[in-house]
Specification:
The complex is a heterodimer of chains A (258) and B (320).
Chain A lengths: L7 H18 L1 H8 L1 H15 L9 H31 L2 H6 L5 H30 L8 H24 L12 H10 L11 H7 L5 H12 L4 H25 L7
Helix pairs in contact in A: 1-6, 2-4, 3-4, 4-6, 4-7, 4-8, 4-10, 6-7, 7-10, 7-11, 10-11
Chain B lengths: L7 E11 L5 E11 L3 E6 L5 H8 L7 E6 L8 H4 L3 E4 L11 H9 L8 H7 L15 H13 L5 E5 L7 H16 L3 E6 L2 H7 L2 E6 L2 E6 L1 H6 L3 E6 L17 E7 L2 E6 L2 H15 L4 E6 L3 H13 L11
Parallel strand pairs in B: 3-7, 3-8, 5-6, 6-7
Antiparallel strand pairs in B: 1-2, 1-4, 8-9, 10-12, 10-13, 11-12
Helix pairs in contact in B: 4-5
Classes of the chains: A mainly alpha (258), B alpha/beta (320).
Pfam families (chain A): ABC2_membrane
Keywords (chain A): Membrane, Transmembrane, Transmembrane helix
Membrane topology (chain A): Multi-pass membrane protein
């Protein structure tokens, strides 16, 4: 008998495929994940037009696009995945999956894959949209933007698992992502670029999880990002990701509380 | 593969499980299961059956003791054990919005050497439900889907936690036949059950758990052999227990009278029944509602559960 042995990739693909099917059947999640990040940047645009951007060397395009990437990561990836992890736990799906060959990391990774891919596709679409609609020129240092986006996707998935560790039910999963989302929108340079904030406040905001992503994406387009500043942002994002992985290993619950 | 078919596929030594709140669910149990054997864990609710099975499945680390499944620690050596075991949890664990076929396909992608999904769905009689969402299945159909997935990888060891709960009589019998056939094909099966009949029909050996410990273990015949048989009947008006032949001579060890109803317990059922019936024939007495039954697992089970209820009223209920 020929025996096909599963690999981490094959197992995660099988799981991701099922999650994608489920995502397609969850209308509420789909609307929040697909449309909100495409609509919200419009409000940033009107705000941006009232700011004195030229002084900071910015244009409406380099304010709106990083904000749009941030919205996509927060809504399509972070918030959506908190719901996925919590609901699968409550349905005992996570427990079921753990009885098989999947490793713990594969279960979370495979479940997160569809949302991460949607987030990625959305960000690419938003970049194209901003280029056309806001006369955004081609990025000067695209590698920083790409790195920022990829780090952001992994970090948001990891943060979602952390938040899910402290969320008991599907209903509360609609509330528990709020603090990080609000803090990020206000403090990570999405509505107001950090360049326009007082220095001391800006340096606090720099260590928020989503700030490095916004910084790297914006810097990738403007080309104003110094190497040390860029590496600092990368280090911040990596640190948040590692911290999240540690927290998940320690606190993630695979079964509902009895 | 392994030459010795009497090898122990599952070995449990002084196993303990303690939950976060300090509740000790499993309090030092030992047993072993040989290759190709069906071993049943029986017990009252809260006896520690599921807590034990979850440790064997490698879902949690024990608080103490040792487990070997196919020679490996199922918790620390997950990668070595999982491809060779199949697990049916006590409750589903399927996304409710997936169809039966989608669920099976997903699971097949995570199982080494998976059989065709259609084949296992047919095995449990779900082939016509392939396009139905899991949320629309009945409780019994969900149990069968769970069994199908546990069988996908042709496991050497099968863990079944209450496999027939929620099934109707026919579904239960089908599952028994399937599990027996698997055993005959060399699969080792560890199952928990509420149904004494299920353990009696299916198990080669069993253990009755109570309050985290194994109260008794052996083949169904061995476990019941320690229990007396029962004879129950109603005496007609005008007759009393004193009119019966001397009970000690009939081999009756205990008797109780409740109105006209007489209950006898004996370890020599044939002698007691013959003596009673011969007496009734000679005396021209009709013994109404006569019920003669050998010792059953139920007796052993109730004996253990009852011994408990006098100590801890909270665990009195027993589900059957």
């Amino acid at each position: 008998m020929s025996t096909t042995v599963t690999t981490p990739t094959s197992r995660m693909t099988a799981l991701a495929r099922a999650e994608l099917t489920l995502l397609g059947r969850s209308k509420g999640t789909l609307v929040a994940a697909l449309f909100v990040p495409l609509v919200l940047p419009l409000s940033v645009r009107s705000a941006a037009e009232e700011m004195d951007l030229a002084e900071a060397g910015l244009t409406p395009g380099t304010v709106v696009l990083p904000a749009a990437v941030g919205f996509s990561l927060l809504f399509a990836v972070y918030s959506a995945l908190v719901g996925v992890f919590v609901v699968r736990r409550e349905e005992l799906v996570l427990k079921r999956l753990r009885t098989g060959e999947l490793r713990d990391g594969e279960i979370l990774g495979g479940s997160a894959l569809p949302a991460a891919l949607i987030g990625l596709a959305q960000c690419l679409l938003l970049a194209a949209g901003c280029s056309v609609l806001l006369d955004l020129s081609a990025p000067s240092a695209p590698h920083w933007a790409v790195l920022g986006l990829l780090l952001g996707l992994v970090m948001c998935a990891a943060l979602a698992a952390v938040t899910a560790s402290f969320t008991r039910t599907g209903e509360s999963a609609q509330v528990t992502p709020m603090p990080l989302m609000i803090v990020s929108m206000i403090g990570s340079g999405m509505f107001v670029p950090l360049e326009l904030l007082p220095d001391r406040l800006a340096s606090v905001c720099e260590v928020l999880p989503l700030t490095p992503v916004v910084t790297l994406v914006r810097g990738g387009w403007t080309g104003d990002l110094g190497a040390s500043e860029a590496l600092g942002a990368v280090a911040t994002a990596v640190a948040w990701t590692l911290l999240s992985v540690f927290a998940v290993q320690r606190w993630f619950r695979w079964e509902p509380r009895r | 593969m392994e030459a010795n078919e009497h090898e122990h596929v599952i070995e449990v030594t002084d196993l303990r499980r303690v939950y976060g709140g300090g509740f000790e669910a499993v309090r030092g149990i030992d047993f072993s299961v040989r290759r190709g054997e069906i071993f049943a864990l029986l017990g009252t609710n809260g006896a520690g059956k599921t807590s034990t099975v979850e440790l064997l499945e490698g879902l949690a680390a024990p608080a103490g003791g040792r487990i070997r499944v196919l020679g490996h620690d199922p918790y620390t050596d997950r990668a070595a054990v999982r491809p060779r075991t199949g697990v049916m949890l006590q409750e589903g664990g399927f996304p409710s919005e997936l169809t039966v076929a989608e669920t099976a396909r997903m699971w097949a992608g995570c199982v080494s050497g998976a059989r065709p999904e259609r084949e296992v769905l047919a095995l449990v009689g779900l082939e016509t439900k392939a396009g139905v969402r899991v949320k629309q299945l009945s409780g019994g159909q969900r149990r069968r889907l769970d069994l199908a997935l546990a069988l996908l990888g042709d496991p050497e060891v099968l863990f079944l936690d209450e496999p027939t709960t929620g099934l109707d009589a026919e579904g239960r019998r089908d599952t028994w036949e399937l599990v027996s056939a698997l055993r005959d094909g060399g699969t080792t099966v560890l199952l928990t059950t509420h149904y004494l009949e299920e353990a009696e029909n299916l198990a080669d050996r069993l253990a009755i758990m109570h309050e985290g410990r194994i109260a008794t273990t052996g083949t169904p015949a061995e476990v019941t052999a320690s229990e007396p048989s029962r004879i129950t009947f109603e005496l007609p008006r005008g007759y009393f227990v004193g009119d019966l032949p001397p009970l000690a001579e009939l081999g009756v060890s205990e008797h109780e009278v409740d109105g006209r109803t007489v209950r006898l317990r004996t370890r020599d059922l044939q002698r007691a029944a013959t003596g009673l019936l011969v007496w009734a024939e000679r005396a021209g007495v009709e013994l109404r509602r006569l019920d003669v039954r050998s010792a059953s697992l139920e007796e052993a089970f109730l004996g253990i559960a009852k011994g408990a209820s006098t100590r801890t009223p909270a665990t009195k209920e027993y589900a059957a």
